[in-house]
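Why do we care about 3D structure at all? Because function follows from shape, and shape follows, mostly, from sequence. That is the central idea of this module. The next example makes it concrete: a single protein chain, its amino acid sequence, and then its structure expressed as C-alpha cells.
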Amino acid sequence: MNNILNYDIVDSTQDEAKRLIQTGAVPSQDVIICAKEQLHGRGRRGRSWDSRPGNLYISVVTPKIGDQQHTGQIAFVAAIALQQIIGDLIDGSHNITCKWPNDILIDRQKVGGILIETEGNYLIIGVGVNVQHCPSTGVRAPATSLSECSNTPPRIEKIIDLFYNKFNYWKQLWIQDGFAPIRQAWLEVAHGLGQQVSLLSPDASEKITGIFSELDFEGSFVLKTLNDDKHISVIDGWHVING
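And the structure:
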C-alpha cells in the first residue's frame, strides 16, 4: 500500500479524510490516513475515542461500491479483516471475536473499533486499535491492548500493512459474491451468538432481552425474545449489553 498519508497530530483521521475529499486531493485508488495522535478522535454516535500516542488510528478512503443501502456492510468486511490480523499478531491462547456492529474483542475485552462514514462518492473506514495501552476510565466496557496480549507488540506499520491487505481481500470478495460470504465469516467469530444478551436503544429509553440468534442478510442484529419467541431485527444505533 503506497498511498499512506502520515500525520503526527490531527483532530481526527475521519475529519482529515473528509477535508481531502472536499478539496479533491484523493486519487482514484484507496488512501490510508494515519495519525500518531488524535485530538478529537471519535467512535459511533460521536462518542470520544481515547487517542493518545502509541495506538493505531487510521482512516481508509475508498470509492463507494454498489447500492447505497448496502454501505453499512463494509463495516463487517473491515471487522473480519481486523479480527483475523489480530489473531495473527498475538498468541493463539486468546479468543478474538467480533461484537455487533463494529467492535473487536480479545477475551471479551474491547481492543479495537470501526467507524463507517461517507463523504461525496467515498466511504471512510475509520479503524482504531489499542496497541500500547487502553483507556481505564470513561469506557462502557472492559478494554485491553495488544501489548497486554503479546510479548512483543507489533509495529504500527506492520498492523496497517496486514490490515489493508486482508481488508482488500474481503472487499473484493464482497464485490464479487455479495454479503453472504462476509456474513458467514463474521458469524463464525461473532461474540455472544446463541447467548442471552440485551439491546439498549440509541436514546437508552428501551431495553430488550433475548437470544442473539443471527445476523440477517442486511447486517441487522436478530434477537429472539425470551417470552414470546418473536424475532426482532435492529440496525446500527442500538447497543449490545450483557453479552
